[in-house]
Amino acid sequence: MSLLELDGVKVHFPIKKGVLVDRTVGHVYAVDGVSLKVEAGETYGLVGESGCGKTTLGRSVLRLVDITEGSVVLDGTDLAKLPGEEMRRFRRRLQMVFQDPLGSLNPRQNIESILSEGMIAHGIGKDQEERREKIKAILDKVGLPSNALARYPHEFSGGQRQRIGIARALVLEPDVIICDEPVSALDVSVQAQVINLLEELQKELGLTYLVIAHDLAVVRHISDTIGVMYLGSLVEEAPSDALYAEPKHPYTKALMSAVPVPDPEVEDKRERILLTGDLPSPANPPSGCRFHTRCPWAQAERCATERPQLRDIGGGHRVACHYAEDIASGKLSLTKGEVVSATREGVEDNPEPDDPETGTSAEDTPAKIPAQAEKTAKDEKPAEASEEPEKAV
Amino acid sequence: MSVATKTDKIQRLAELTATKETSTGASLWREAFRRLKSSKMAIIGAVIIAVFVVIAVVGPYLTPYAPTAQTWRGEVFPNQGKFVGPRGENWFGLDHLGRDMFSRMLVGARQTLLVGVVSTLIGLVAGFLIGGLSGAAATLGGEAGKRVDSVIMRFIDMMLALPSLLLAVSVAAVMGQSLTTVMIAVGVVQVPVFARLLRGSMLAQGGADYVLAAQSLGVRKRRIVTSQIVPNSLSPVIVQATLSLATAIIEAAALSYLGLGNPDPAIPEWGVMLAQAQRFFDNAPMMAVYPAVGIIITALGFTLLGEAMREALDPKLRG
């Protein structure tokens, strides 16, 4: 049995109108039926573009948002059904590290007070003296000096603040830590430090992580299993290496094809799948497969009417696509969208560019996440790009 | 240079640069105070207020004459337009009853400060309770809380819709003519302002990540309100309180001017003095100028300090 099991979790936010009496005029289907399992001591990575509901899912696990339907079972207890006070006490076992390290720390409290807050709430340590000893030990673990105690959040650097955020979660000795974009607000050099710290802590304390991120490299580095979300539901789930080696779902394929490869020879041959259309509104999701409006392999009938469920296609690889095998074997061809050479989309063959900067800036383009890359792709179809290489940025 | 002195120097440098174990961090309030000290506006405002407070506290003991003694009644004939201006024994001249204006100004300062502070306090405390309740209900009370908040706020909106002076006059009319009435009337006018301000500020903080963090830590709701949301919502309220002191003094003066103030002639008050001077403005404008200038300067002092505090506490300016 897994430590944390989500089964059919739905979080729908009502859209309300009215002055005195609110009328519900619709729902935003932020999370729409997600089932996943997180094994003890492992890291589950959740990726997806912004607005796909991954943060809401993370918050629903902690019941920071109300769960509309489904269950969140931690170690045999269904959190979705716990009454308020019991849920409050249960939060000790589930902690969260937030995206914005400064915003998640109360600017009016010093570090000691911030770290004591949770311990007081759960009655850990009988007096402040005892709590202080424990806090000092945790600060040492996350690599902060003990003189940090009397200082305030704004006096620390971004990386240090995130360490404080991690320390705050750790003082309660939780089983599961949900990291919501733990490093996306940090400098790249600091990102690595924080990621390494999280890994060390996992090894030392046997923690279980649910890491939510949009940075594919970060997730790949830290996760054992990765789930890909699109518009409120999981489209693919697989062990980290398997997913990166061979993504099965069309959306994951498009997502992965946007990642630049550090090897220049491979990078030259890399192909990008360009998606058409915009991300549909979660208030009015498409029928059938959520992705069929943008899927390059979408088929006429089934995709628009029948919603695919996650199914195991071998090796713990789960995909929510009717035609995953056919796409993998090459039986199906593209119906829309296009595959372009990743290196060619910015600049067409132009042996001696007039502006030396154009060459360098073009290399940045493929690194964007699909949502952004697509935008750039629209106004730089390869044909146009050859005429106006300056527009490549 | 010998090696020994060199190592000494390095040692010394290390000592100087090291953060002391006991060093305490600078809280935001302390930093705001530091910023306040370097603001000219704040210093001018603070000096004016300090002088005013000193006058209000010790002034009544330093009066050269009793403020009610009509010592020079024989020299002033209001009917014939004969008044006495500033002179050696009476620095600010005499009023229409032959009383020393300087003494009356000194004693009046205390009344003015009292009215300003007490009425602002009334508004602040009542507004804080109402706004705090409303804000707490809206941020953490769920659906039911939002409804409670909605009801309270519509009530507050009704109060805000009334012109403040009209509201004050109504209160004064109901309660009769006295200094307490003036203070309550002016205070009631401030209640919706403070309530709305605190609630709005709490709502803004309610969605902050650190509130979410406290919730995920399992901190009790009541404690989230008192230790997380309220301390972070206070700064605009404190700024408003400082600014309100200025308006409270002016409004109290206005009420006194309209004849709703303290009926006891034994206790001079700047607003009352201004009201009385109006009748003789043609012949003795200085009688009105002294209390008017007093009110203006005091209000200016509070406004300057309030504005400077707003700047010092504004998180957007924080480096």
The largest pleated sheet of chain A is described as: 8 strands, mixed
Oligomeric state of the chains present here: heterodimer
Main sheet: strand order of chain A: 6-7-8-3-9-10-13-12
CATH class of chain B: Mainly Alpha
Overall pLDDT level of chain A: 83
Instruction: Enumerate how many helices of chain A there are, as a single number.
Output: 15
> What general outline of chain B do the C-alpha atoms trace?
flat
Fraction of residues of chain B in helices?
Answer: over 70%
Organism (chain B): Streptomyces albogriseolus
Protein name (chain B): Peptide/nickel transport system permease protein
Account of the 3D structure:
Chain A is α/β, with parallel strands linked by helices and 393 residues long. Chain A has 2 domains: 227 residues, P-loop containing nucleotide triphosphate hydrolases (Rossmann fold); 147 residues, no CATH class. In chain A, 33% of the residues lie in helices and 21% in strands. Chain B is an all-alpha fold and 319 residues long. Chain B has a single domain, classed as MetI-like (MetI-like fold, Orthogonal Bundle). The longest helix of chain B has 40 residues. The interface between A and B is medium-sized, with 40 and 30 residues. Chain B: It comes from Streptomyces albogriseolus.
Question: What features would you highlight for this structure?
Answer:
heterodimer; A: 393 residues; alpha/beta; Rossmann fold; four-stranded antiparallel sheet; 15 helices; 14 strands; B: 319 residues; mainly alpha; MetI-like fold; 72% helix; 0% strand; flat; Peptide/nickel transport system permease protein (chain B)
Which secondary structure elements does this structure contain, and how are they paired or packed?
The complex is a heterodimer of chains A (393) and B (319).
Chain A: E1 4-17, E2 23-38, E3 43-47, H1 54-61, E4 69-74, E5 77-78, H2 84-90, E6 94-97, H3 111-121, H4 128-141, H5 158-170, E7 176-180, H6 188-205, E8 208-213, H7 216-222, E9 225-230, E10 233-239, H8 240-245, H9 250-257, H10 264-269, E11 271-274, H11 302-305, E12 311-312, E13 318-319, H12 324-329, E14 338-341, H13 356-362, H14 370-379, H15 382-387
Parallel strand pairs in A: 3-8, 3-9, 6-7, 7-8
Antiparallel strand pairs in A: 1-2, 1-4, 4-5, 9-10, 10-13, 11-14, 12-13
Helix pairs in contact in A: 3-4, 4-5, 5-6
Chain B: H1 3-17, H2 28-37, H3 40-62, H4 101-140, H5 142-161, H6 164-175, H7 179-206, H8 209-217, H9 221-257, H10 270-278, H11 286-313
Helix pairs in contact in B: 2-11, 3-4, 3-11, 4-5, 4-7, 4-9, 4-11, 5-7, 6-7, 7-9, 8-9, 9-10, 9-11, 10-11
